[in-house]
Amino acid sequence: AMEKSRPLWDNPLQFVFACISYAVGLGNVWRFPYLCQMYGGGGFLIPYFIMLIAEGMPLLYLELAVGQRMRQGSIGAWKIISPYLCGVGVASVVVSFFLSMYYNVINAWAFWYLFHSFQDPLPWATCPLNSNRTGYEEECEKTSSTQYFWYRQTLNISPSLEASGSVQWEQALCLTLAWLVVYLCILRGTEANGKGRGSGRRPAEPQREVVYVTASLPYCVLIIYLIRGLTLHGAVNGLVYMFTPKLEQLSNPKTWVSAATQIFFSLGLGFGSLIAFASYNEPSNNCERHAVIVSLINSTTSIFASIVTFSIYGFKATFNYESCINKVILLLMNAFDLEEGSLTADNLNEMKDYLMATHPQEYMQLLPQLKNCSLEAELDTAVQGTGLAFIVYSEAIKNMEVPQLYSVLYFVMLLMLGIGSMLGNTAAILTPLTDSRVIAARFPKEVISGVVCFINCMIGLIFTMEAGNYWFDIFNDYAATLSLLLIVLVETISVCYIYGIRRFEKDLHTMIGRKPNWYWKIMWAFVSPLLIISLFIFYLTDYILTGTLQYQAWDATQGQLVTKDYPGYALAVIGLLVAASTMCIPLGALVTFIRKRLKRENVSTV
Amino acid sequence: YVWDANEEYLFKAMVAFAMRRYSSKNTTQISNVLLCNVTDRVSFWFVVTDSSKNVTTVSGSEVEAAIRMNRNRINSAFLLSDKTLQFLKITSTLSPPVEPSTPVWLIVFGVVLCLIVAGIVFLIAAGIQQRKKKNKESTERENLEEKGEVTVTVENGIPCETLDLKAGHINGVFAADDERYTSL
After folding, report:
1. Binding residue per annotation — A130?
2. Which residue(s) pair with B155 in the sheet?
3. Which of B78, B108, B132 is the last residue of a domain?
4. Do B106 and B69 reside in the same domain of the chain?
5. Alpha helices of A436-567 — where are they, by DSSP H?
6. Do the Cβ atoms of A482 and A582 come closer than 8 Å?
7. Among A374, A426, A461, A388, CA closest to A167
């Protein structure tokens, strides 16, 4: 049988860039700073690095080595290791499919904000007026203008999951555009050499120019923001707050679990994208060195991004603190008819005591309106996820000079990060599809990619409905988490114990030229599987203990988030999401077993 | 600037001006405007008297309407704004931000959308062209092979040409492929 020559990366640098572009995603920007803040500031780096060494690097190396050795997408690669493991590849593809369904909505939101950045003033800088123009809209008054812009004008969010509402056409347009962009980027992807009859010409290259851009542009923007952020007034407060280690958090088990989870998902293990990327490598590529490089770059980027984020935090917190103080000063001056300039931020406390002593009754009347402004409280408002990216950052941007420029830069960076990760996801879905001869022979690659993008776009319209953000949260929290843990666990155990670690060693020796040393072997065989099992147990016990699952809903009348319980059908969807991918593994083994049995029976009857 | 008697005089003058413009009679004098309870905060009460009607005060609603009509003149006389010069009980109507006829974001969206679609169409067309060329060449090759003039040397099912490229190692011992085929 003729072997189809597989397209290759131009050079190892392209492969590294592709991995970086895939691994460095939105999670580095919006999840790591939150975790750092919640779990002890500078002290969080200790469990983070321990987990990096214990599970991050070994598992990344494992996946890259498997892809490079088997030279197939995830389904084919695991089939080669053992026919009973075809379910693992299918589970990876299913999880990638779920991820690509909801992840591109983030890119749609980034496009929306990007397009709105070309106005002066920025639309989220001020509240819109109410109908008789005497004041601002009620909902906007209760909360801030940036939150109003996000919840009302972008999402038009409904009060609960049950009230679905209609599809927002503006968001649907942005989503369509996001999918068109993804389609454009993957179009220049791998082309199967259909005839393979010694065409001699160089085969088409995998998505190359795109990864150079999507990998390096975010760094440029982050550096610009770093310089801008550090020169902002009050940035130092945020940095000091972040880096003061609160070492007592190290005794909290949640700290270690969060560090492990963050490393795990940040590297994008278990989706099959890494296997797909590595399968386009030359067999002699030094994937060990690349694994170390990519994981180190990923972690450094997280820390770098959190420096930027915390300087922005500090700026925003200081700004809010100072306006709070100014409001209090104004209130006191108006109430007691004091001269302008007699109350300043420095003498505020003394003056408050003095006023309380001299005019006790009026002061008591005024007391409920006097907010106790505290810089610590402002810094403590830890936000993660879409809240951080779209609310906190846009609030900080609107207070800078030339906000349009920074806004455009920031949202372009978000787009690059998001699209880079989307390319990895779609590679994980498309590589097995184009590898399989059944489909690839009948349809050209453009049609397959187009169909996948179209289906995802149509399903993604659910997330543009009024209740769409709640469904988004469901997918974000449950579609990938548990399933990935299980997938990677099965991967590690199968490579170490079913394929055999000695055989794997030998393969690596033929590929790279040297055997993996004892550190890698111990990690693969013992430490990483144990870590994953303990993570798994932790999540299950956590769920069982808390009982029901809840979500945050936006209450327009109060202007803040409230906690609500998921309705029954939402819980069913969650269960379906987790089951759909995890059941693939045992189902795959069962199907292979039955097929083999049938074959054996056919043979024996003959 | 410091709030002193001159500024008070200017204020009285502005209120008188507002009353004159509003009611279009030229009888209001600066002396008709009385300020009282001036505090350090620079806040005070003021009334407008009507000298033609036996020193009675003009009704508050009239004064309010007059000031509302001339608000921006009064503001600019003091180099202040609606936020810094506050008349209690007179709420200002806020001006809405300028809205262009087509929202700006749609324009940018349209531009980006056209670029992306153009890119996609271009790439698909290039791909189709490339495939047509490949088909033509491989059919030409097949025709030539049927005539037996071109042989594609094959090693273990993999054409030798691709072996010469990156994929695969060529074992030096057996590399003397020229000698394999005896010349005719």
Report:
1. no
2. B158
3. B78
4. no
5. 437-442, 445-460, 468-478, 481-493, 501-512, 518-522, 528-546
6. yes
7. A461
Does residue B171 sit within a domain?
no
| Higher-pLDDT residue of A190, B45 | B45
Entry pTM: 0.79
Domain boundary among B109, B124, B141: B141
For residue A116, the chain B residues in CB contact (below 8 A) are 104-105
Beta bridge partners, A256, equal: none
pLDDT at residue A205, rounded to an integer: 40
Q: Are residues B108 and B51 in the same domain?
A: no
Q: Which of B43, B96, B120 is nearest residue A180 as measured by Cβ atoms?
A: B120
Same domain, yes or no: B45 and B104: no
Predicted interface score ipTM higher than 0.85:
no
Closest CA to A380 of A248, A262, A238: A238
Put simply, the answer to whether B96 touches A112 (Cβ < 8 Å) is no
Phi, psi of A582 (to 5 degrees): -75, -30
Which tokens in the block code for residue B91?
Answer: 């709420």
Residues B29, B69: one domain?
yes
- Residues of chain A neighbouring B93 (CB-CB closer than 8 A): 133-134
> CB–CB of B109 and A121 under 8 A?
no
Share of chain A above pLDDT 70, in %: 93
Q: Is residue B12 part of a domain?
A: yes
Tally of domains in chain B: 2
Mean pLDDT of chain A: 82
Average pLDDT of chain B is 73
pLDDT > 90: percent of chain A? 8
Measured between beta carbons, the chain A residues lying within 8 angstroms of B42 are 339-340
Q: Answer for the pair A430, A75: CB distance below 8 angstroms, yes or no.
A: no
Mean pLDDT along residues A517-527: 88
Residues B24 and B69 in one domain: yes
Task: Tell me whether residue B9 is in a domain.
Answer: yes
Q: What is the span of the domain harbouring residue B48?
A: 5-78
CATH number of A14-192+203-333+379-604: 1.20.1740.10
B92 located within any domain:
no
Query: Nearest chain B Cα to A132, which residue?
Result: B93
- How does pLDDT run across A150-176, given as a tens digit for each residue? 888 888 888 888 888 888 888 999 999
Give which of B68, B106, B116 to mutate to test A binding, by max A Cβ within 10 Å. B116
